[in-house]
Design a protein that fits this description.
Elements (H helix, E strand, L loop, with lengths): L11 H14 L4 H15 L2 H12 L8 H14 L3 H14 L4 H13 L3 H16 L10 H14 L5 H9 L6 H4 L4 H4 L5 H22 L5 E5 L2 H10 L10 H17 L5 E5 L2 H10 L9 H11 L4 E3 L26
Parallel strand pairs: 1-2
Antiparallel strand pairs: 2-3
Helix pairs in contact: 1-2, 2-3, 3-4, 4-5, 4-6, 6-7, 6-8, 7-8, 8-9
Length: 340
């Protein structure tokens, strides 16, 4: 499917089938591709088939990178076609597991919210925020939906703002404030005969649509390419001209961290790291009809890996291991402040 294809023109069943075929060709990316396929099946209305895909992933012998994301999506889907008890059980299991990824928290909280379980939704959003954002100086881009969803539910419950609600307001960049966007009384203005009220609501809806479009325009992170020591040695041995790009593995790691910090300082959100392998890179070069020695392929390869769901968010969450694979915590490794 072309990225500019209007949603109403998409054959979701056919797109799901295409993604399943692609997953068979790229087993290393099967998890991300099958999740996309399941989303298309949900949009087509074939929710039982989507559940079958989620079950296929969960029963896979190859281990999942994001098992709690799959469980959360399965629960949300099940609830939509009458399997409430099973959905609730899965949601409780996800919450009890305390995943370090914000996406499962957002999905199960929104499932509760969409079924008018507002108190439980608020508790779920808050649990995720406490786990992922306590003592975090700057919330990562991936956690913004967690804060925005929490703000929305608390606004519907009519509870006073707290520090995280204020932070959500600060992170929100659209002209219409979150308080206006999440105002429970907005639904009444849609039935008003007052032109001024209707015009105001249209402005709010445009701002909300703008926020969604901004999020959708960044479906995968701006990713920097990383090679492990063994893969980099194999790469530069096979293609000596690339040694000009990678003088040493240590310098390579330092350059990655410096590049990401520079991008972050410039205001670029949603940053990530993708790890390459020589066979994968050679296959990519062949698909482009180019030589692996062409250094201009490297950033294209990184973008392709990110688009296939291979990116790991940067910076790592508090207490997480460093992205370089050293086994040390990020804050004690590449996340340490440089010595002056």
């Amino acid at each position: 499917m072309r990225p500019d294809t209007p949603a109403e023109n998409v054959d979701h069943t056919a797109e799901a089938a295409r993604l399943e075929r692609t997953a068979g060709l790229y087993p290393e990316d099967a998890e991300a591709l099958l999740l996309q396929a399941a989303a298309h099946l949900e949009l087509s209305g074939d929710r039982p088939a989507a559940t079958a895909l989620y079950d296929r992933l969960l029963s896979s012998s190859a281990g999942l990178e994001n098992p709690y994301l799959v469980r959360a999506l399965k629960a949300s889907n099940l609830w939509e076609y009458g399997h409430e008890a099973e959905a609730r059980a899965i949601i409780e299991g996800v919450r009890a597991a305390s995943p370090r990824d914000p996406a499962p928290w957002v999905i199960v909280a929104e499932a509760l919210e969409s079924h008018d379980e507002l108190e439980q939704a608020q508790e779920t959003f808050s649990e995720g925020a406490r786990l992922l954002l306590t003592d975090v100086p700057e919330p990562p881009y991936s956690t913004h939906p967690l804060l925005f969803g929490r703000h929305r539910v608390r606004r519907m419950l009519g509870v006073p703002h707290d520090e995280w609600d204020t932070l959500a307001d600060t992170l929100h960049s659209m002209p219409i404030s979150l308080d206006e966007l999440h105002d429970p009384k907005r639904v009444w203005s849609l039935g008003s005969e007052n032109p001024a009220e209707l015009e105001a609501e249209i402005s709010r809806l445009r701002a909300e649509l703008g926020a969604y479009r901004e999020a959708l325009s960044r479906p995968f992170p701006v990713a920097v390419l990383h090679w492990t020591a063994g893969e980099l040695a194999e790469l530069t041995t096979a293609y000596p001209s690339l040694s000009a790009e990678y003088t040493s593995h240590e310098d390579h790691l330092t350059t990655i961290e410096a590049s990401l910090r520079e991008l972050s300082a410039s205001g670029t959100p949603n940053l990530g790291i993708v790890t390459g392998t020589v066979p994968s890179y050679e296959a990519f070069a062949a698909s482009e009809g180019a030589s692996p020695e062409d250094a201009t392929l490297l950033p294209q390869y990184a973008t392709t890996l990110a688009a296939r769901g291979r990116a790991v968010a940067w910076p790592p969450q508090r207490g997480a291991g460093c992205w370089c694979g050293s086994g040390r915590q990020y804050g004690e490794c590449h996340g340490a402040e440089p010595q002056l």
